[in-house]
Inverse folding.
């Protein structure tokens, strides 16, 4: 009996070691998830343009080999907040931003942990790296004479503070394709209609620890529905008829550097212009 118990204990210990190794690997991987998204209002000049999107870096450090792999592969870099957290040295943040800024023009929004850590220091680091911090701001991106609008939604310090209305578009941008970045996808609760063709968000980490069949047990009801991946709606009476949203699992980790069935990710998103709808002609 003793030998059998020792054998079982050995098997259990080996399985636990394998699971732990897998969890550690998923938390540290430099994986880029590639996707193509068709946007109804995207100008032809932007067809094939690529966005590098990264969210929830927290305390992780980007590798220089990653920089070599990504250079020349994206037209813009968008940071979805939680670029740092408390006790992360600003020097590490500056190094990450320097790497990201070399990929392409860089735009960012605050996340809740940025606001609790050092928002002023982060804003200064972004500015010195050539990045643009969007706090309820619109910027126009241009390509071969065509334009689209990029909107950054500012993160409230406390969720009970709520979100203001999205910044009004200037008259010349009212009918432009709009890409909107917001740290926390709960923002969609605060708008009656999704006001952008493409919404980029993070915050959830996908739950970070997920179990087969059960998903992420630590997420509340809203985030269990909007945990990670792609979402789409149909708004036939809105200026934006077919909004889509990507929620990233994030690059960094919260509390522990462990993940399960939810590997860390970054994104390379290829924009595609929709073909003209001739169904009614």
């Amino acid at each position: 009996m003793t030998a059998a118990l020792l054998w079982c204990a050995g098997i259990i210990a080996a399985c636990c070691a394998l699971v732990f190794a897998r969890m550690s690997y998923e938390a540290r991987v430099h994986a880029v998830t590639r996707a193509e998204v068709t946007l109804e209002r995207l100008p032809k000049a932007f067809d094939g343009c690529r966005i590098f999107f990264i969210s929830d870096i927290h305390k992780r450090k980007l590798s220089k080999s990653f920089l070599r792999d990504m250079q020349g592969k994206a037209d813009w870099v968008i940071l979805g907040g939680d670029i740092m957290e408390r006790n992360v040295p600003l020097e590490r943040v500056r190094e990450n931003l320097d790497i990201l800024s070399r990929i392409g023009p860089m735009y960012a929004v605050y996340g809740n942990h940025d606001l609790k850590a050092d928002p002023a220091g982060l804003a200064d680091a972004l500015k010195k790296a050539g990045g643009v911090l969007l706090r309820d701001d619109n910027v126009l991106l241009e390509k071969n004479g065509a334009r689209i609008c990029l909107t950054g939604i500012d993160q409230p310090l406390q969720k009970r503070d709520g979100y203001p209305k999205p910044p009004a578009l200037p008259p010349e941008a009212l009918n432009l394709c709009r890409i909107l970045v917001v740290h926390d996808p709960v923002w969609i609760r605060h708008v009656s209609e999704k006001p952008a063709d493409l919404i980029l968000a993070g915050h959830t980490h996908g739950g970070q620890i997920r179990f087969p069949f059960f998903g992420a047990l630590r997420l509340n009801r809203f985030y269990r529905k909007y945990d990670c991946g792609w979402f789409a709606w149909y708004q036939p009476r809105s200026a934006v008829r077919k909004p889509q949203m990507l929620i990233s699992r994030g690059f960094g980790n919260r509390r522990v550097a462990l993940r399960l069935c939810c590997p860390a990710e970054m994104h390379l998103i290829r924009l595609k212009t929709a073909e003209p709808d001739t169904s009614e002609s």
